[in-house]
Design goal:
Distance between the termini: 29 Å
CATH topology of the largest domain: Alpha-Beta Plaits
Bound molecules: magnesium ion
Strand order of the largest sheet: 5-6-1-7-8
Number of helices: 16
Number of domains: 3
CATH class of the largest domain: Alpha Beta
Number of strands: 13
CATH architecture of the largest domain: 2-Layer Sandwich
Shape: elongated
CATH superfamily of the largest domain: Reverse transcriptase/Diguanylate cyclase domain
Largest sheet: 5 strands, mixed
Strand content: 15-25%
Helix content: 40-55%
Length: 416
């Protein structure tokens, strides 16, 4: 029986995910840039409007804004990228267990065994596209074919939010006119070599003399010839290459030097609240709290301690972080601090059963959980500053910052 393989590719992934929380940018050129404060930060990704204006990945922020003065620049949102990638994978798993990731935003699905349950390949592709649009707020293009390479070319064929079916009957008509570099594994060097022999399209490659190709490119010449002729039969290899988040942390450079313990406490409170919210959004808890203190001469002092139970509550993170600070005070030798980071590591799933320790006040923990969840809901509805601790108003200069997110991403199985 013939295989039915889908290749799902989320469109302009990084820019689309980042724009979900900025509906006002929907019709504007947007670029995701590292180090947005610095003019030498570079463009990491862009949306289609920015692409149309000539913005290229790798350009500096300075070059990009010169080319497109109304370009909207956003910082990367690594947690959100991982979260959307993981949720997309959960959707795919509803249709088949044979899912192979190819980068953070692309997957192959072998749905050959699912057709009786869910309809033909195109029907499954359309349903997956609808769910990605409705549940994740981004769009995807899907290629449906009888092999992986043609499925991938199908997802590239029509974008955004489209399904393309490549069959044994139509592949010559649809794919052969495309430039040869559209074929998987044809990089620049191969393309240039093929060009010397007048092979510029997929069709020209498919119709070329096999022996001549092998003498030109070696073994890979024969492989490419097979791909162009629809003879790829490589299986979809289930992998769990979804990168795992290793730690969630927030840091800030204070608007003024921090002399007093009270200053550090206020700063740490804002950081702990942000870390806790991010943990809850990811449905994770941390078992270790780390702090990093940097003084005005840029000397850094780090401390960490285990928690009695895994947590994603700001009160508990703050308590541990401030205790670490107090232990570090003698080492700081009275030099005022410039920046503070609070980080939670050794992450576990929120549902993982916790080994309760004897001195753990579970009633207090549950009460705090209810309070923080309620505040999450209020902030989600009415904005981040709708609910604030009275304590933070004692020093609005110190507490009025947006914490800088950092997270360590650990790809368990980086895609080739
Ligand atoms: Mg993509």
């Amino acid at each position: 029986m013939e295989s039915v393989i889908l290749h799902v590719d989320m469109n302009n992934f990084f820019a689309s995910v980042s724009c979900r929380s900025h509906p006002e940018l929907r019709n504007k050129p947007v670029a995701i840039c590292g180090d947005t404060e610095k003019r030498h930060g570079i463009v990491l990704a862009k949306n289609s409007l920015a692409k149309m204006r000539g913005i290229k990945t790798g350009a500096t922020v300075g070059e990009a804004t010169l080319l497109c003065p109304d370009l909207c620049i956003l910082p990367p949102a690594p947690d959100e990228y991982l979260s959307v990638s993981r949720k997309a994978r959960q959707i795919y798993n509803d249709y088949t267990s044979q899912v192979e990731s190819f980068g953070i935003d692309e997957c192959w699905l072998d749905v050959s065994a699912s057709l009786r349950l869910f309809g033909d390949g195109v029907a499954i592709a359309n349903e997956i596209r609808r769910r990605i649009r409705e549940e994740l707020g981004v769009t995807a293009s899907v290629g449906v074919s009888y092999n992986k390479v043609f499925a991938k070319m199908g997802s590239d064929y029509k974008k955004p939010d489209a399904t393309t079916l490549i069959t044994e009957e139509n592949y010559r008509e649809l794919l052969w006119p495309l430039p040869v570099s559209d074929l998987l594994f044809v990089g620049r060097a191969t393309r240039e070599k093929l060009h010397l022999f007048g092979i510029d399209t997929v069709g020209a490659l498919a119709r070329s003399d096999l022996r001549q190709l092998v003498s030109l490119l070696g073994k890979s010449g024969a492989e490419l010839w097979q791909l162009a002729n629809g003879l790829d039969r490589s299986p979809v290899c289930s992998n769990e290459s979804i990168p795992q988040i290793k730690s969630i942390g927030n840091s800030t450079t204070a608007p003024r030097d921090l002399f007093e313990a009270e200053d550090v406490f206020i700063t740490m409170r804002v950081l702990a609240e942000s870390v806790a919210l991010r943990l809850r959004t990811e449905q994770l808890c941390g078992c270790t709290v780390q702090i990093e203190l940097r003084n005005k001469y840029l000397h850094t002092c780090s401390r960490q301690c285990p928690l009695s139970v895994p947590t994603n509550l700001s009160e508990e993170i703050l308590g541990a972080a401030f205790e670490l600070y107090q232990q570090a005070v003698p080492d700081l030798r009275g030099i005022p601090l410039r920046s503070v980071a609070v980080r939670v590591t050794n992450l576990v799933s929120e549902d993982a059963p916790a080994q309760l320790s004897l001195d753990f006040d579970s009633e207090r923990h549950e009460r705090q959980q209810t309070i923080e969840r309620t505040v999450d809901t209020l902030r989600a509805r009415f904005g981040a500053f709708s609910v604030r601790r009275a304590h933070l108003y004692t020093d609005p200069e110190l507490s009025g910052f947006t914490p800088k997110a950092e997270s360590l991403i650990h790809p368990t199985d980086a895609p080739k």
